[in-house]
Structure formats: C-alpha cells, structure tokens
Amino acid sequence: MFPTRLALALAIAVLGATAPAGAKTFVFCSEGDPESLSPQLSITGTAMDAAKPMFNTLVEFRPGTTEIRPALAERWEISPDGLEYTFHLRPGIAFHANADFEPSRTLEAQDVVFSLERQWKADHPFHAVSGARFDYFQDSGFPDLLRSIEVVDALTVRIRLTRPEAPFLASLAMPFMSILSAEYADRLLENGHPERLDTAPIGTGPFEFVSFQPGVSIRYHAFEHYWRGRQPIDTLVFSITPTTAARLTKLTAGECHMSAFPDAADLARLRSDPELKLYETEGLNVGYLAMNTTRKPFDDVRVRRAVNMAIDRQAILDAVYGPSAILATNPIPPSLWAFDERVEPYPYNVAAARKLLIEAGLPDGLDTDLWYMPVSRPYNPNARRVAEMIAADLEKLGIRLRLKTSEWNAYRVSILENDDVSLALYGWAGDNGDPDNFLHTLLGCAAVRPGGNNVARWCDADYDRLVREAKTLSDPAGRRALYLEAQEIFHREAPWVPLAHSIFSVAARREVTGYVADPLFYHSFEGVDLVDRENAVRAGEAATLRP
C-alpha cells in the first residue's frame, strides 16, 4: 500500500491554482526545515507544523481558539483534589501504516502510556533513541509533575499528578503530547531500527507521512481511515522556502496555495490582489532580545537596563513590523488575562543608559556578539534588519556588536544549548493560551538547562517561586496576582529587551477554503480544500479574514 502512495505523491507536480478533479494536491510554502518530524522532539513551530498533519492528542484546541475540546479522548474526569485525570478513548481509531508496519489494532490506552512514559522515564527503551531530550516535556515541568500513568482498561487511562496543575489539560493539547503507536515502536525495536519511530512517523492524524527531502519538501497523503473522515485534499506538500520574497513569488505565480509568515511590507499588496487573500488573527507571541545573565557584563542588572534604554524599540517597530504588531513591555502579550498593564516600559534614553554603563564600570563600552535568526518568524519578520538597528543604537553607547547567524536549526542549537552566546534575538509563539506557557516555560529556572527555552539563562528564585506556585492554583484571580508580581520582578531585573507582539498572518490563493487562522501560530490543514475559480469567487470569502 505504502509504495503505491509514494509513487503517486512523487508523480504529482507542485501545482498552480487548481488541482485536477480526484487528485487534489495542496502546496504550503513553509519557512524552513523542521529539526525533527517527531512532535516529541520538536521545539520550533516549523517542526510542530510538520508533525501536526500526522498526529492527534488526547484533547485539542478548538480551531481558531484556545478552548479545549475532546480529541482522542472523548471524555474525562478530574478528581476533586485535582490530582487524578481519567481519560476515556474513542473506540476504533486507526493508526497509519507504511512499508514496514501494518497495525493489527486500533488506538488503546497502552499507546498513551507509551507516548508519555517515553518522555518521562530514563529507563524506557525509547527514551534515548534519536538523541532525544524532550525539551518541551522538560520545560513544562512534567518530570516532577507526573506520579503515575496506568492502563485501567483497553480504552481508559489514568494519570496521577504530584500536585494540582492548572494548565494540565492545555499542556496535553500541545504537539509534544501527541499519541504514538506502541505497537509500531515494538516492531521497530524487534527489527533493530528504533530511530524510525521519529524519522518515519506513524500517527492517527488526517495525513500519512510519505517523504522528507531536506531543503526541498515534505510530502503527506490523506489517511483513508481518519477517524473524522477522509480529507478533501489527496496530497499535502510542504514546499520549503526560507525567504519571504521567494514565498511571495511562489504564491503569486500559483506554485503554492498558501504561504507562511508574509512580510509586513507585503500585506497591503496581498490584500489588494484579487487572486489572493489574507488570513489574520491576533497572535499569542513575543519577540525579544535576550541577554545571557550568566556572562559578564550581562550578569549586572545595570548593564541590562542600559541596553533596554539604549534601543529605540518604536523605530524598530515602525521600520520592520509596521501596523502588524504592537510594542512589547512584558514577556506575555496584552491579550492574555495575566498581563500586567501597570508596568511602564523602559524609556528610550541614551544619556541615562550611558550613565548606567559608567556605574557598572564600563565607561568605554564593550565588544560582543549579537545573534540573529536567519528566517522570518511571526514575532520577528526580519531579524537581520532588527539586529542592524540594535547595533546602530548600542554603538551610541559604546557597545560594539558583531552580527552572527547560521542555518535555522543550527541557530536554535547555538542559542539554546551553548552558554557562550551573550546576545540573541529570539521569540515565542504561545502553545496553549496559558500565561504559564510564557512565564514559566521561557523564564523559569527549570528552563535554564542546555536545550531549555530560557535563552537569557536567567534564574531568579523569587520569580521562580511565584510562577511555580501559580501553576498549582485553580483560582484565576489567585494565579493572576502571582503573575503580576512575577512580571514586576522580570521588569526590574530586565533579562530581555521585549520588542513586539505581532498579528498572525497567512497568505493564500483565493481558491483555498476551510482554513482557520490559529492564535497559537500553527498551520493546520485539516478540513482545507481547493475549489475552482468560479466557485472561489461565488464563495465570496473576504480578502482579509479575521476569525
């Protein structure tokens, strides 16, 4: 069965505006190579997008929202003390197949246990496969949160926690909690190829994996036995296109049907083109400059405050983001319920910044490196331009920057795993709509480890206590009070220069239907279809769609 699908996918050319009846191919111009095809190993949105077509989670977010709804689990119960979750799985959910594997059964509780324990238990036979470190699992605090995961019966699984965890269900909806096939893993272990669990994925999602050619494309085919029904698209192709200009060219030429992360400067053109349309939604994200607080002189809060005051953030916003973003003050966007509107941003004041540097013993400034991303991201559409503007601003302070970058996956490794990076541009698109996903995941002490998402390597005991305590409360008002106090500490200690919160934009050809823009910045193609030109016009979808 699998070789036939592969031959079909390779035979279909990357199409223009419409696909032949009965053989629809949808082409998505994605922004880069995923670091992995496994949702458990993914740490970037690029990789999570690549994994999402193939997998499901126990619960999921309703499209276009952060509202939790049932997915592989059709219902669940929570104990009164918040320490026990019992999930009841849908019966008859089929797994994919490939040349090496034909499933003999449908989804069972043992698959849930396998998927979580692989990330949790160091003695699990798949824990070290693929050099895995399970960064999201670690940074979300799961190693010390889980007490036990057990099979109650074939379609029931019980998860016990060591403490109440307010964002637990939201965390279960994140890609790293996707459910894999334990039967497939057993087969691969028997055959001596356990790494294929991550390179030839098997899931329950709407599309089956076909092939991955780095720098070129990822191909999928519609899963005939998907539990929600077969997709209207036969073949899904991620056409890997790192630059925004190249993606726009492909989109307007009809070489792709949808394009990730259009440049802010192109939005007006996209809105005015009758052949195209723009999906936009307010995104949960932040772009920032991180200062490595473990390296001199950025271990001195006076230096960090000076950098904050020396950068003209409004000029950066105007030049790079345009009207598609707002200035950032806190680590979380204003649309989150825990945002502290009382915090005043550091003013742009070069004289005051210079005074702080002199107080810190740096009257002649310093020389250091600034790393910038090689690809456009929703929270930073042109990192090189941002880096150049920051360098020009800091030069007035006597801080002389050497600009550095590398290929996207190598860049991520450089800034997340190496302690010798002093300044780095990075950002975050929220995964679950909970403040914890920003305040703990990005700035908690647990995320300081190599590979963790705390790029600033900032560990403040008082801050960490507050965000950890907030996780245990079910009362939103109590959690908000703790998060407000934590944001005050963040502002005082200044491990970042917060830059911007952007709107999530996706450009598409007019014949695309069924797509829903995601505030969590994922690109999901479940339910997406292509209609002919006449029907596209008749459908009357607005040139700019705001779900």
What does this structure look like?
The protein is of the alpha+beta class and 547 residues long. Among the domains are: 56-196, Dipeptide-binding Protein, domain 1, CATH 3.90.76.10; 285-502, Dipeptide-binding Protein, domain 3. It contains 19 helices and 21 strands. It has helices at residues 2-11, 45-51, 109-120, 135-139, 142-145, 168-172, 182-191, 196-199, 244-253, 267-272, 301-310, 313-321, 350-359, 383-395, 408-417, 436-439, 461-471, 476-493, 533-539, and strands spanning 25-30, 59-61, 68-70, 73-78, 84-89, 146-153, 156-161, 207-213, 217-222, 235-240, 258-260, 276-282, 285-291, 325-327, 366-371, 399-404, 423-429, 496-509, 512-513, 529-530, 544-545. A hairpin with a 5-residue loop joins strand 4 and strand 5. Helix 11 packs antiparallel against helix 13 (350-359).
